[in-house]
């Protein structure tokens, strides 16, 4: 049992690695309990303070913290871990081993990669949630219900379990929209929340714990869907010259080999929910079937393009080698994808409002 004011509670951690020297720069965001107090006259305004250290080994940072933190270093409340893109491209096996083998670390912490300067990311306040670590963690919570097991598969323990596979690991990229860090807490008083702020920006592709490239947001979504980890997607189709937005829910993917190791069949099933219908004609059963048909064809085309992109880059995005395919000839594997959808939810009326 410890008094909260005697602990340096770390909410967010970040690390960068210099490819020339091999030295690490670690960042720790420590919560300031007095600023979270509801009592009048709180002693300090900043909710978190950011500490920065440099050394040549991960295990040496604990000792360094005692030289500048007047409280006991405490990592049990850590929300998220962020690493720089240049560190990810060098390979992060050393970090994974450090987290997994250290008794003081938690392997259920989620991992992100940033394509923005680490200093900028770690020294910026966030709107709506005053603690940046919790803000970033909450971004992932928006997606968790649609993942299998309701877990975003980017925890250190998930990554460690899959680093030996040929199927890539895709980790969300955190991007900072401004040029300078929002290091002043007055930033959260500004109404423009998108300016000088953080958001997801696609996904980093890691093979055997080393970043080899990145996917845009739509391709990242397809990766998780086809590997049976995610169950939702939004598509826009054109019906009778007008746009119709539909949301695919409860997506189920079934795989089977037509010819073992050389011809893979993938069937994708989805329930459709009508999100936006700009058609000027009445919604009929025939019209619903037309939307389903257009959705199937549109998604099949995107999936084929996605599969070809992975093959061209040498990324086994479908996990062919880990699911019955030949490791030597997986690029020559014929893949046939069929999408089957059914409209299950429409709006309150089937007849649009029109002006004479």
Automatic annotation (TrEMBL):
It comes from the Bacteria. InterPro entries: GerAC_N (IPR057336), Spore_GerAC-like (IPR008844), Spore_GerAC-like_C (IPR046953). It is found in: Membrane. The keyword Kinase does not apply. Keywords: Germination, Lipoprotein, Membrane, Palmitate, Signal. Residues 201-344 form the Spore germination GerAC-like C-terminal domain. It is a lipid-anchor. Belongs to the GerABKC lipoprotein family. This is Ger(X)C family germination protein. The lineage of its organism: Bacteria, Bacillati, Bacillota, Bacilli, Bacillales.
